[in-house]
């Protein structure tokens, strides 16, 4: 039986639902010797900001049980250099590219998006990081406020016809209300979740392992958090949901899809093996074939909740 893995989000078609997550796959060009990115559904770039950023002082990453804590501080080359050095090579990635944007004000986000629109960058859309946990200025300001999320989404919607995806934080009281604000302001999709606040302390030195003390926790430890968020969002909005958080296998991806995700992103698992996401595609096809599912879309939201 042949299974159809293609998915559509707001009219944009992807060859399969396995994407790689922002911050775990560079700008999409660095992994070429480690995996075949052309077989992935899409590559999401690390966050691009208006100005280049050095990021936070080291140590910036620590392993924890079933995951890791990072505090990178949005280190990136800035939009100008991204346009000059990465955009001309985007074909080498061989699949759809979604550029992730971060900022500290609506103006910042608009600046980056307008630059990319002006140069007619051959990307299929934008994922908007409203939820970096690791920078002081405006920390999480957008992510926790439905009204600000709505205003930002609305402003960006006026600038682009490309895919507009708002990436949500789990570090909020009601993630579904933020998703709803994004939907009502014109977002094509939401992605969930970004990292969960986390802290880990060396009991000998009494120092936290990352320099900023608190960072963002990712990996299998956060998977049930992500799945619950996707489930809650799916009960409140009609736009597609992109599931993220601790996905290491096709089975993990199916859990997210059953909870309501249309596609998923693999993040932390890339650090262990950058070929993880690619290898999940065959695994997913096998799951569909074994379960007699012809179209992946049949699975989305297919969970049978307890009464
Ligand atoms: C960073 C940004 C994020 O959005 C996140 O979830 C974790 C870390 C960062 O750049 O520090």
Can you tell me about this structure?
With 307 residues, this protein is of the alpha/beta class. It has a single domain, classed as TIM Barrel (Alpha-Beta Barrel), CATH 3.20.20.70. 28% of the residues lie in helices and 18% in strands. The protein contains eight helices and 14 strands. The chain has helices at 78-86, 106-118, 146-157, 175-184, 223-234, 250-259, 269-272, 276-290; strands at residues 7-9, 12-14, 18-20, 42-44, 61-64, 67-70, 96-102, 125-129, 163-167, 189-192, 196-198, 215-218, 241-244, 263-266. A hairpin with a 2-residue loop joins strand 1 (7-9) and strand 2 (12-14). Helix 3 (146-157) packs parallel to helix 4, helix 5 packs parallel to helix 6 (250-259) and helix 6 packs across helix 8 (276-290). Bound molecules: 3,4-dihydroxybenzoic acid. The site of 3,4-dihydroxybenzoic acid has 14 residues, from loops.
Taken as a percent bin, the fraction of beta residues is 15-25%
Number of strands: 14
* CATH level 1 class label: Alpha Beta
Number of helices: 8
Order of helical and strand elements: EEEEEEHEHEHEHEEEHEHEHH
Short key terms for the protein model shown above:
single chain; 307 residues; alpha/beta; TIM Barrel; eight-stranded parallel beta barrel; four-stranded antiparallel β-sheet; 8 helices; 14 strands; 28% helix; globular; binds 3,4-dihydroxybenzoic acid
Write the layout of secondary structure elements.
Blueprint lengths: L6 E3 L2 E3 L3 E3 L21 E3 L16 E4 L2 E4 L7 H9 L9 E7 L3 H13 L6 E5 L16 H12 L5 E5 L7 H10 L4 E4 L3 E3 L16 E4 L4 H12 L6 E4 L5 H10 L3 E4 L2 H4 L3 H15 L17
Parallel strand pairs: 3-4, 3-14, 4-7, 7-8, 8-9, 9-10, 10-13, 13-14
Antiparallel strand pairs: 1-2, 5-6, 6-12, 11-12
Bound molecules: 3,4-dihydroxybenzoic acid.
